[in-house]
Amino acid sequence: DLASNALGSKILSFSDEWFADASNLLVPAAPIRRPGVFVHSGAWYDGWETRRHNSKLPTSNPTPSQLESEAADWVIVKLGVSSGRIRGVAIDTAFFDGNHAPEIAVLGTFSDDDDKIKADGYEGWETVLGKYECGPNRKQAWDLGELTKAYTHIKLLMYPDGGIARLRLYGLAVPVFPEAVDTVFELSAIGNGGRALSCSDQHFGTKDKILLPGRGKDMGDGWETKRTRGEHVDWVVIQLGTPGEIEKIMIDTANFRGNFPKEVQVFGTLRAGDAPAPGGTEEGVWTEVLSPQRAGPDKEHDYTKDILKNVDGKSYSHVKLVIIPDGGISRIRVWGKRTVLSLNTNLRIQSQTSLHRRPPLRQLHPTTHPSSPARRHRQPAKPLGSPRRRMRLGRYQRPQRSRSRALGRVWAHSQEYWATGWGLPYLFNEVGAFGGEV
């Protein structure tokens, strides 16, 4: 989720936030309700809500400039990553019923000048998602078909006014690397394209959090595995944002005081081109970079080149962190120098010509699945399923499904739609845990 404030995304400016702050749009946690609670501006809402009576009506099929010219409240989000390519947009109007936003649209731009973007008359906006209806007290998601071009800022338009609980922008970070190849920087950071691909277990905390910026705010802001008995190790595989020569590794056990690992160990491997990502238990592909080291509670553990091995003159595209025998960590950071290789990675930028020929837009929801990938791409752009099967929760109550059925349904759906659309938001509320990629 490129819009998450956990990545450092923030609100740059807004038209109005009289009833509820625009910053609530970027909170990773699901919205909550506090009935009967009132503040100076009115009833308390977990979202962004503006004043009434923004009167001018929108037009149909507007251009980006027309989208901005219509009467609408708006908010500009500066992405926490250097830039990002968007694949899916999700809007949640949880608990906004009667005061929800009737319609929304999303624009994007690429710029390093915040003041220029905030100025009236800025003409650099491009349409990411056209104008769509936004119903009360429900979630809606749109699969854009493929990744957009890279954007640094997003503008959410709400026609003409009202409230929205959450905004999610699913996609990939597009890093901006230092021009000098000998510059040491964090290869594993999400903002630089790092991704946690797989792990042995994430019973208490998910693998994706260990690449977030900053130290974890609590024990839930990290990766933690279940208790084990006997000989055992847990592991997580991380794809670096770019292949590089490792200079330093830091493993942080912040807030893990009685459940930190006994020892930590790190391996590395280099995968070129479109070769599949290595598995955590795959043999013969991993090179030991850090031998088992004793770990301590609530502490940053730094490992420099005098402790590391097999790093001089060697490049790695993936690292595997092993915790012995189990436990939890808050963060891992891998610093190094970028290696210029002829690698065809998943983060390559497509030509602008191909980006403008998108497949039809698809609106997603969690209860309907296309019969096959081939058929999915041939179907016309329309909401999936019949109105009776769409997820429209009148009081925002969760469906009474079993935990295992919900998890299986979300896992299949998030895999099919690459963690865009309904995969992750549905998992937030249905299962109560974040089980997909950030």
From TrEMBL:
Provenance organism: Microthyrium microscopicum
GO MF terms, alphabetically ordered: allantoicase activity
Gene Ontology biological process terms, A to Z: allantoin catabolic process
Annotated Pfam families: Allantoicase
Highest taxon, organism lineage: Eukaryota
Start and end residues of each Allantoicase domain: 8-172, 193-338
Segments for region (Disordered): 351-405
Membership in a protein family: Belongs to the allantoicase family.
This protein's name: Allantoicase
Composition skew (Basic residues), residue ranges: 387-405
